[in-house]
Batch of 2 targets.
Target 1
Amino acid sequence: MEKVVCSVIVPMYNEEAVIHETYRRLSKVMNDLGESYEIIMINDGSRDKTGEIISQLCKQDKHIKMIDFARNFGHQIAITAGMDYAAGDCMVIIDGDLQDPPELIPEMIRIWREGYDVVYGKRISRQGETFFKKFTAKCFYRILRALTDVDIPVDTGDFRLIDRKVCEALKQLPERNRYVRGLMSWVGFKQKALEFERAERFAGETKYPLKKMIKLALDGIMSFSYKPLKLATYIGSILSIISFLYLIAVLIQRAFWPHSTTSGWASLIAVSLFFNGIILLMLGIIGEYIGRIYDEAKGRPLYIVSRLENMEEREGPRYK
Ligand code: UDP
Ligand code: MG
């Protein structure tokens, strides 16, 4: 493999409106830096012209490499593929929509040279995002932190620089439902935060609809905590105790005041609905875990590559 100091990994899903600008700003930063570099763009099964545009960039600039997925596998899998194919001594993972400023990369590399293995971007503010998105993100990062024993920093996305040895460690974690930033905390190494203001999306719309956000949140929590399962035990025990006390009260009432217990449809329905709700919720939580176990048991590869460009000779990963 050729010698590369920095591989930049950019996942792209339906980003035709931003690719040219992303390419321009990234290349400028990397050229000014004066280190050998490559920019790996992952076309995550886009339905628009993203693939064609990347292909065209590959032809005019050999620094650009493409991994073309056979279908949409999702953001977390796309950055995993980028790391699998990257040749650099360090790698920078950055969103394709310019919400993470490429101009921060030289600073990240400087900190990396000081001896840090992970330099992660911590968002001190987010622009151009809805109140709903900011609020749910804030809550999610804090809930995740409260639920897990792994030290996952809050308000931190996937924008970061990692050393090759961190990447090699990550390759030993072939989990299917990936929450990559959590895995990076799990492997450890010397980490440092670099604060930045998250910009607005350059063009186009978010590729993270609510459904994908929920999936990512559940992956984050379920891959790093059993606590939701314990919830069943706690709620179950408390409700059983309350039910038992109520049962005794009802029996006493029935024994001493036999005529007073005819009415009660409303309370019966209320209790029944409440308990059924709790039971279904708990079954759902167990189901989420079982589904993930099933995914692991099938042992399918994480993604299917349909074609590589400007790095055809590189070997893909061997997932067990
Ligand atoms: N992305 C992807 N596959 C997907 C969804 C998103 O590769 O299924 C990419 C997307 O092109 C972008 C990055 O992941 O480069 C972050 O997505 P987005 O900006 O839409 O998320 P947001 O910033 O709104 O959370
Ligand atoms: Mg974005």
Note: The first strand starts at residue 4 and ends at 12.
Target 2
Amino acid sequence: MGVDLGLDLIVVGSANADLVVAVERRPGPGETVLGSDTSVLPGGKGANTAVAAARLGAKVALLGAVGNDGHGELLLESLRTAGVDTSLVRRSDRPTGAAYIFVTPDGENSILVSPGANSALSEQDVDLADARVLVASLEVPLPTVEHAVAVAVQRGIRPVVNISPMAELSAGTLAALDPVVVNEHEAAQLIGQGADLRGLLDLGPRSAVVTLGARGALVIEADGTHEVESPKVDAVDTTGAGDAFTGALAAQLAEGADLVTAAHLAVKVAAISVTRKGAQPSYPTAEEVRG
Ligand code: ADP
């Protein structure tokens, strides 16, 4: 049986240190380019999702892995500060995951991810506490996510998976999801470019949510499709917008909201997040969303 940590939500996913350097241009092969000072920011899809949910007041734990190093400490500290329960974060002998992010003056990012400890999160680490909803993303090994979904189903915990980055989930895992969450590019990879997005349900999930950038999101259920419009905002940084959306959606589902109501709150949260710099620092509190 799961431990009772009094949780609404368990997030299974990555924690990375984002190492951001501004550069005039990307280095070519064999070339050395000098850049700005390095900003070290807490990131990773799992940690971002957990922080987004915690800011809204959800009781959330991250099931993930960090190394025994300074980046691991930084990530644990930022999770705790946001109110995320870190008792399910494993310490690994591998280095904490890192994303090397080069930002050029045109605003384009080039990103190299070194998964490190995230790759070490194994099926044996999946020891789920009791919760209402489990939400996973794919910067950790696919077998770990599939096992977590299977255990969640056994325990009566509602499984949500954001298939990002793209991975080939088994038919059994897909069939359990309620919902599967993808952006437009990921949807195209799953069902083909230009295909009717309702086709996502043919892959087996009980429901699907497709995020549509500035246009908001589409909620697809067996009995119908609902367009959920985003508030119009001036976007300054869309880093981590998808994670904000997923964290807010899962937090609302854990509170008992229906999927369409949850998506309405999630687009508001994600819209606020894109008006501010960074991923985790840009995520709003419940008060800010209401106001
Ligand atoms: P990802 O970040 O995974 O690529 P999207 O670009 O679809 O996914 O963004 C996720 C969510 O963030 C959207 O559903 C929307 O709610 C919000 N969002 C993204 N870009 C904007 C924007 N320019 N204006 C308002 N909301 C946005």
Note: The chain is about 30% helix and 25% strand.
